[in-house]
Amino acid sequence: MENVHEEWKKQLVKCIRCGTCRxxxxxxxxxxxxxxxxxxxxxxxxxxxxxxxxLTPALQARMSKCLLCKACTTGCPxxxxxxxxFLSARKALAAENGLPLAKKLAFTGLTYRKLFDLGLKLGAxxxxxxxxxxxxxxxxxxxxPLPSAGLxxxxxxxxxxxxxxRSRLPEVNKVASPQGKVAFYTGCMLNYVYPEAxxxxxxxxxxxxxxxxxxxxxxxxxxxxxxxxxxxVGRYLAEENVKILAAENYDAIITGCASCGSALQHEYSAxxxxxxxxxxxxxxxxxxxxxxxxxxxxxIKQDLREVRAxxxxxxxxxxxxxxxxxxxxxxxxxxxxxxxxxxxxxAAKCCGAGGTFSMVYYDVSRKINDWKLDNAExxxxxxxxxxCSACRMHITDGLGQRDSAMKVLHTAEIIAKAYGLD
Length: 422
Hints:
Number of strands: 11
Structural class: alpha/beta
């Protein structure tokens, strides 16, 4: 633990207590409590490193009340790597106090790939027992309150697909006269929840003349586990994915999920321990690209079909601040004939999803979401595009709560329509 404290001190000493993080933290804006800010958390960790405060369950709860949106990291004038610091703290706190049994079981289940896949397929088949269709058809509502799952009878969630993406498509998707070969890392939500968006990505890639391999043995990226502090599971998943993706020589590793892409590109650096796998990852991480990055680099097709719609765009935190992707989706959307693009205010601010954050702190996440939706609706757009399935799920829930007619689509679905691939 002393080594951990020494690593913390390298970041803690940089904090000048200026409070800039207060102005960018969405959780602080809702809770108006100093301990929800990065500055407040830094002060708490400083007390721990000085032996004045123990790694208590109460501290663990405070550290969990963070979206890991990276806004404080990018906005810090002193360069404190708050995102890395808070992940390290969660790791230490989980090691000291453990995690709730439900989380521990869920994370452990991720390591059994075939069993996890079977469980979600069975869940899709029998989801009607626990959930009913939402009145407007946007998703599902719990028949009974399920507070332990972060659900209630008012929260709208997307249904599990009875035909996951990786069961719809072959592992190798060939093209005539291939101009390259890429791996498509689908992650979990594009596979089990939004397979149509995943299919759109594969069609787009094939339209650009590349062979698309969807590695059958890929697993969850591990983000839910290691962001909660379970680095044992997170490390296993990270190392397995790296070994699988490094087994062949791909021109690029394509992602359509911001969190998966950011994990593969950056977060694995602090998760992987095996030196050999770490070396593989260092080479692999340079090839990780969001689908919109790949399209812009290859060149947006010129013979695009007209898509008559007014569209606004939401920047997922892990895409804009994690992967540095912001202009690419806008460049593509504004190039589509018929699209009236309307930039919303604060498009790069967090929508409040934060993975499991919205399950544990649903009321807080909803208030943050409402600010996002207010700005989106003011544009008059009929479609909100985004590149993160978790954001899509959370924003769709918010729109349903306010009976808004706006629809949420993955950016790739709109691009596929413009490419004439729908």
